[in-house]
Specification:
By secondary structure, this protein is mainly beta. Helix content is 12%, strand content 36%.
């Protein structure tokens, strides 16, 4: 909405009359007129130009809301596509660490490999927290009794027993073995290894000999 102001010739700082369309305001200070003009927006969204001002010309177009500005801010399929997570946008070198992740349904791995954590220890007796590993190597340097804590039903644990000192004895009292719980005779030859698979089955820990007397120092 355009406005017209009639300046008082005798007092240029004053305005005799201001017209905003059919609205007329008389006898106002010019600076007040220009402030009032700033609140009137052209009905056709044309920029409102204030003239006859002592500070020059002011254009209010940048403050107006137009369809062009709304369109630029709109959410479009193209903008969403640009933000989408795609195989190309994933950095396969990143490592992720999760604690206590529960999965239901089928987990399918189309390629690559799954690498677990192999923990290690050395010495005689071993109290192993099964909550922290599914693969453990114990380098036996003296007679050893191996016990477990937090062994979950359904959990499998691969246990490597490396003989670091010849002639030692090894016992796994919590395990139940095949053939009527026949406890295997563990190796005691220097730098040989026995590999044992332990499986949690309810309250039991089932023991199976995978291999014995394997030459290995690692």
């Amino acid at each position: 909405m355009a406005y017209t102001q009639v300046i008082n010739a005798a007092s240029p700082a004053n305005v005799d009359k201001v017209e905003f369309g059919a609205l007329q305001i008389r006898e106002l200070k010019r600076d007040l007129v220009e402030r009032l003009a700033s609140v009137f927006v052209d009905a056709n969204a044309d920029p409102l130009v204030l003239k006859a001002s002592s500070v020059g010309t002011t254009v209010l177009a940048d403050l107006s809301v137009t369809t062009g500005k709304l369109a630029a801010s709109a959410v479009t399929a193209a903008k969403l596509a640009a933000l989408a997570v795609t195989p190309a946008s994933i950095n396969t070198a990143l490592a992720f660490e999760f604690n206590d992740v529960e999965l239901t349904g089928e987990v399918f791995q189309s390629s690559g490999r799954s690498v677990g954590h192999r923990s290690v220890s050395a010495g005689g007796d071993l109290a192993l927290n099964a909550e922290t590993t599914n693969h453990h190597r114990h380098s036996v340097s003296s007679n050893s009794s191996i016990t477990f804590a937090n062994f979950a039903s359904g959990q499998s644990l691969l246990l490597e027993l490396h003989i670091a000192t010849g002639g030692v004895s090894i016992a796994i009292p919590a395990a139940k073995w095949p053939n009527g719980n026949t406890v295997p005779t563990f190796s005691n030859v220097l730098d040989r290894k026995d590999v044992i698979l332990l499986v949690g089955a309810g309250a039991d820990i089932l023991g199976f000999v995978v291999g014995q007397n394997i030459p290995s120092v690692t």
